[in-house]
Specification:
Elements (H helix, E strand, L loop, with lengths): L1 H21 L19 H10 L1 H4 L5 H6 L10 H17 L5 H6 L7 H14 L2
Helix pairs in contact: 5-7
Length: 128
């Protein structure tokens, strides 16, 4: 009986922690500052903060931060910043970022077409 209860307790704990790990983010845009205060124009910062910081900011996810780490933005050289900005613009334009699960849980923070155009123009300016 004790073994059965122990097994049941461990199983339920594993299911609980697995569910927590796999659930999509439900934040409504990060209000936390990003380490290093990335140097973005104010208009770009507003879009990036509401749509990107949850995954790519201080408390972001490892995989997302491996691609673009806003906390390290200022350590990137200008060529790398321009490249990362172009990638951001392309992914926003295609709709592959933010991810679909995040979009469903944060509908009010999904970038508008005008905001995507703003990021695209900013990225193009960095690449000149």
């Amino acid at each position: 009986m004790k073994k059965t209860l122990a097994f049941l307790g461990i199983s339920l704990s594993m299911v609980f922690f697995l569910a927590l790990a796999l659930r999509p983010a439900t934040a409504s845009g990060s209000s936390k500052p990003v380490e290093g205060n990335p140097e973005f124009p104010d208009s770009v910062m507003k879009v990036v903060q509401k749509a990107c910081f949850d995954c790519h900011g201080i408390d972001g996810e490892g995989m997302a931060k491996a691609h673009v780490n806003m906390g390290k933005w200022n350590t990137y050289d200008t060529k790398k910043q321009a490249s990362k900005a172009s990638d951001m613009a392309k992914k926003l334009e295609k709709g592959s970022m933010p991810p679909e699960k995040w979009r469903k849980n944060n509908a009010n923070n999904v970038p508008t077409a005008a905001e995507v155009a703003l990021i695209k123009n900013w990225a193009a300016a960095l690449n000149k």
